Amino acid sequence: MAPPLALHDPQRPLRGRDALIEQLESALSVPGSPRMQVLCGMGGSGKTSIALELVHRRLGRAQQVWWIDARQSTTLEAGLRAVARQAGAPDEQLRAGDAADVLWRYLARYERPWLLVVDNADEPALLDGAGKLSEGTGWIRLPTNGAGSVLVTTRDSTPHTWGSACTLHPVHPLIGDDDADAAQILHDHAGTMAGPPDDARRLARRLGGLPLALRLAGTYLADANTVPAAYREPGTPVDFRSYQAALDRGLEHVDQGNVIAQTWAMSVKLLDQRGLPLARPLLRLIATFADAPLPYTLLLTPETLTSAGELAHLDGPDMWRLLTALAGLGLVDLSTATGSDALPTLRVHPLVRDASLDQAALRTAVTALHSAAFAGDTGIPEEPDYWDHWRLLQPHALDLFHRATATELPNQTVHSAGRAADLAARYLLVRGLFDQARSEFEAVLAHVRVSLGDTHPDTLTTRHNLASVLHEQGELEQARSEFEAILAHERVSLGDTHPSTLTVRHELARVLHDQGESEQARSEFEAILAHWRVSLGDTHPSTLATRHELARVLRDRGELGQARSELEAVLAHWRVSLGDTHPSTLTTRHNLARVLHGQGDSEQARSEFEAILAHRRVSLGDTHPDTLATRHNLARVLHGQGDSEQARSEFEAILAHRRVSLGDTHPDTLTTRHELARVLWDRGELGQARSELEAILAHRRVSLGDTHPDTLTTRHELGELQQPRVVD
Fold this sequence. Notes:
Blueprint: H1 18-29, E1 36-40, H2 47-59, E2 64-69, H3 73-86, H4 91-96, H5 99-107, E3 114-119, E4 148-154, H6 159-162, E5 166-170, H7 180-190, H8 197-206, H9 211-224, H10 240-249, H11 259-273, H12 279-288, H13 296-299, H14 316-328, E6 332-335, E7 345-348, H15 350-356, H16 362-373, H17 387-405, H18 411-430, H19 434-452, H20 457-472, H21 476-494, H22 499-514, H23 518-535, H24 541-556, H25 560-577, H26 583-598, H27 602-619, H28 625-640, H29 644-661, H30 667-682, H31 686-703, H32 709-722
């Protein structure tokens, strides 16, 4: 019954809980407020330490404190009977009737301020006694006088378990915007010799800010450093950095006492006792996915788990029962969807994940991921309606692929992981994350080339996707070479007018256009368009995409009237079928605005660019390549309208982003540098303008050749700059 005050170490003060302590102090002290407070959180989160801190403060005010350990029914009941006796209840009354009723009758008469702490109440059913906890008739009840208050610590955060008389206070790990408190706990236990604050912060984040894990790690390092170096086992971690490295190699390297694993094993055992034996394999499966929010309504469904062994028999209600049970004990955190189209997710604490990880579940995870990725309801990465799905699926698809290729799994399982990873990389591509997309496509391609061969359809698909990234990155020659190689295979195996062949021809023609070979690009687009019109009709998406690209070629060749007519026709179809703000519609509007600007209608062009920019900023963000393209063209209009100051500011901002994301010599970067140089020229900063144009010309001559339209434009601008400037 006495509080375990030996666990309250003044040399290692409670860190990061000041706000929660103040909240609890207020709730336990203010008249009229709920007086039964419940600290709930996962094992090791520091609930008992918080309770001890409150007890320490209350004992300093001469209050009566009773501390009850609720882990076992026998100790719980014995402790509460002892509390009743100290409150004045005679033994005969405790023996004669309901002991819980007697306890609370005498506590209601107890005049001295008191606090009853019920620690480790992880099985709330033990608190029912002969009554019901949630109904206020169990062993633990709401105090009826103003002198008393109750504090409970538990892993069970389910509101209906505790009833309306209780106020739940979640206890979260110490990781957030500022992880200084978590790092300081490491220092408190490990001492100053274990490493600098930055290393402590990194390890604290790796440990997920969980106080138990922080204490174990710090204590381990303090102990390791008491052993002379000559007597240590080789490779023993002795500082924060080496401890993190050992942790990354596997939890068992540093968790010699297996205390962390035991913490969660107790929770899982509790679920077994509650008749939920499948919670254990489900937690293992969840832990197998990436350390990222898990869209469980996509990945953990009866449809995705048809090959999941004992989990295959779960229906929807069964799965929800298990998930909420795991969440109730703090083993997972369930988050609800915040919008009509948003998906609910769950997260697993990093150490729960490490302790629960079972490589045997990897095959099941890959199968579930593949099933979800190719389900009709998931959609494709290129469609905005499904971006939220792919934002959440992407980290799991890529993580499982890399782990599957490093593990001895059946070839079909690894192949499934590769197909899902290819879709995830397509999402990265459409979101403008070109470097990441390229890296993932290259990894998938390396695998499928070995396992399937260079001309297998799946290999060709990944090669095509990789070539698309190369094109976006400005690697035009490499992209062209790859598309030409793919096209050669498609022509032999499928024929010249098969839809797959035509798609490759379309992408190759886009590269040719960007390389300045507009005549060849035009000829190819016209040939592709003729086939699409016959086989698909004039308004099929593939036909419209080719009409759009042909219009771009016409625009760059100066045939603005024909380009405008075609873009307006394509736009009309897109608006009907996709809506006004679909990416394809916005791209067509963007290119039509460029034509309007070329025709001298700068006001209409400006209005359209501004409208497009507003949509792209919302859907893509301010620095997505498509957003930057619109900002660039809007700045050109501003410059043409005489607003050189605003144009300069915008070009400089765009240039900074493009230099970081694309590099200094990417075609788009050079285009922005060129436009900025024109602004500098018009502002009279001739020396800086000349220097920049000369640098651009040197790059364009190497990458595009001396007669490419962009090179010729720069040569023209530089030639004009050499002429004497006439000033009125």
